[in-house]
Amino acid sequence: MSRNADDLAALIRGRAGDAPVALGLILGSGLGHLSRAIDGVAIPYADLPGFPHAGVSGHTPELVVGDLEGTRVAVFGGRAHYYESGRPDAMRLPLEVLKALGAERLIATNAAGSLTRDIPPGGLMLLNDHINFSGTNPLIGEPSDARFVPLTEAHDSGMREGLKAAAEAEGIPLPEGVYAWFSGPTFETPAEIRAIRILGADAVGMSTVPEVILARFLGMRVAAISTITNMGAGMAAEEISHAQTKAMAPLGAAKLETILRRYLRNTA
Asked: Would you call 134 a catalytic residue per the annotation?
């Protein structure tokens, strides 16, 4: 843990209180409004040196710390993406701060393209594994042997079972699948979509995998959920765009909030 992370955690406690955080939540494109469900304190990233700036529309650059369904949470209203800076470890400091605040669990969310007709736009997918198709890794350059992180249980089975139970209780479909990380910022070509489907992916996106790796490196348990905003390139007639992502994300966001609330009530 860096000294900077400890200093930032102290700053956050000074504003939001000393109670330890139980769970962190990273919100993807178009999902930032979920942070407004938290009864707590919002701290702009601009007040937290080293945190990402608002580099992507559809993200809310603030950290909200407070209570949701009886659980102390820290919600990242936006994330830094690899394609913004060329740094796969761009979310390392925020996640180090989350760990310093006491969090043992992380739930990452994202907007993704579906590669299976069984999970159409507006639906959700619970990640049970991922493919790092970007060719890079957020732990490149880490000097310690801790960099050799086993990822067999990258997506925690216990957390997945809890989220599936919450979804079933609410009557919301939550199929599982494999997420493939492409570097972005361009969307994938139809040929790339055909290739990654052959490799076993069920959805594609430009985030989340670096955070999963970093969180496991820091000793946190991790789960991740995709909000499906479009079909992969070549699988539907419409042209894929970021505007489409932002427009479609709210369709899944309401379902996502319902599941998260039930999960937290069940695990509080």
From this structure: no
- Which of the residues 154, 207, 211, 233 is marked catalytic? 207
The distance from CA 76 to its chain's CA centroid, rounded to whole angstroms, is 9
Q: Is 53 a catalytic residue?
A: no
Q: Is this model's pTM higher than 0.90 or not?
A: yes
Spatial CA neighbour of 225 closest among 198, 195, 255? 255
**Collapsed DSSP state (helix, strand, coil) of residue 258:** helix
CATH of domain 3-267: 3.40.50.1580
85 classed as catalytic = no
User: Which one is catalytic: 4, 33, 37, 83?
Assistant: 83
Q: For 42-88, how does the pLDDT look when each residue is reduced to its tens digit (9 = 90+)?
A: 999 999 999 987 656 556 789 999 999 999 999 998 888 999 999 99
- The string of pLDDT tens digits covering residues 176-192 is 999 999 999 999 999 99
Q: Is 33 marked active-site?
A: no
Beta strands in the chain (DSSP E): 23-26, 39-44, 62-68, 71-76, 105-114, 124-132, 176-181, 203-205, 221-231
Catalytic residue among 111, 125, 203, 224: 111
The single residue of 108, 230, 231, 263 carrying the catalytic annotation is: 230
